[in-house]
Amino acid sequence: MCYDDNARPPLPPGQGGSARGEDIVLTSADGTRFAAYAAQPDQPLGAQVIIYPDVRGLHQFYKELALRFAEVGIQAVAIDYFGRTAGLTARDDSFEYMPHVQQLQLPGIFADVKAAQDYLYGTPAGKKATFLVGFCLGGTLSFLSGTQQDFGFAGVIGFYAGMSRNMGGEGTLLDRAAQIKYPLLGLFGGADQGIPNEQVQEFEQKLKQSGIPNEVISYPGAPHSFFDRRATDYAEASSDAWNRVLRFISAHAQNV
């Protein structure tokens, strides 16, 4: 498990503006209804984000993260993965997520993110540069979604993206790194026991060989899930991560 019910995203840098958020239900192309959380800035900028949660799906950490993005002017929608197998039930600590994780298929994920993208494009803010931001399983899915040309993303961002999960038998993230089509920002904990530094280095090397614009950062001594307001020992790493995410979005939003 990446974040429990008490985890909260760190605050972004600077003075945040006002924003509002709401629980919504989206419908995928195959008719699946799934939960999402939308956050609207009062003063929107030129970018939007779709948030991929960790293995537990859409829980409070990601709703608050969507609000934090909106407070700095970036419209956000966080999505749940499990509409096909768990419906619209709650994703608190009592949710038995692993049976549902094991049933995830990439075509369903891609259909759901397309529904989220269509939702963003249909809001009053309209069509803007769209980025994916994912955590843990969501980081892996962010990068795998980046292999799909049709989305037209401005960039893909992943925190602690696992390298060895073979999603749907189509290969691991390391296997498919060279297929990523969009600028990429990868953020890792240097002391993350589940993602060896050797894998992170191999991932970065494959991105460089393919020519994908990328920035891969590993924070020495930081564990998995270091990006948490409670993790005061890693506050500096969290602050740097926020700054890198916002700079990445600002830089690549202009290229779309």
UniProtKB/TrEMBL annotation:
InterPro entries: AB_hydrolase_fold, Dienelactn_hydro, Dienelactone_hydrolase-like. Residues 1-22 are annotated as: Disordered. GO terms for molecular function: hydrolase activity. It holds the Pfam family DLH. Residues 34-251 form the Dienelactone hydrolase domain. This is Carboxymethylenebutenolidase. The lineage of its organism: Bacteria, Bacillati, Chloroflexota, Ktedonobacteria, Ktedonobacterales.
